[in-house]
Amino acid sequence: MTTTSEESTTDQRWQLWLTPFPKAVGEARRQVRSILACWLVPEEAVDTAVLITSELVTNAIRHCDNSRLVHLQVSDDGAQLLLEVSDPSRNPPRPVVPLAHAESGRGLFLVRAAASGFGARHRDPVGKTVWATVPRLPAP
Predict the structure, then answer these.
(1) What local confidence, expressed as pLDDT, does residue 39 receive?
(2) For residue 131, how many other CB atoms are within 10 A of its CB?
């Protein structure tokens, strides 16, 4: 895993390359919590960002070829956090309605409920990026 951090007075950006195995999800959560604490992001926004990161990274790992890396990028423009997870799959995320007793399948519903914005875009030459935004400060 490789990390880099780019900071300026108005925008901060951090990224992490993850191996596509389940243990990477916990590492992504820990790293995001750590960088957001360094950026002095309020705890409520940190908790939301960590939850969203967990769901997006889990989906990327579950649905991609395990010979390619997953890319996580977090940006902070001072007003909101932008969480982006890129993987080599061209298939867009599709929410499903899970059975009541299902142990998975609710991730995108959680992301949509927790995020202030959510979407996906194709990447050239291959893959997609799924993104979500979280307000940096709690809503008044």
Answers:
(1) 96
(2) 21
Note the CATH architecture for domain 2-135. Answer: 2-Layer Sandwich (3.30)
The pLDDT tens digits of the residues spanning 35-78 come to: 999 999 999 999 999 999 999 999 999 887 777 899 999 999 99
Cβ neighbourhood burial of 128 (10 Å; 0-12, 13-18, 19+): buried
Query: What percent of the chain is predicted at pLDDT more than 70?
Result: 82
Tell me the two tokens of residue 20. Answer: 């596509």
With a CB cutoff of 8 Å and minimum separation 6, the contacts of 78 are 10, 11, 136
Q: What are the boundaries of each domain within the chain?
A: 2-135
Pairwise CA distance, residues 130 & 128, whole Å: 7
3-state helix, strand, coil in the chain (%, to 5): 30, 30, 40
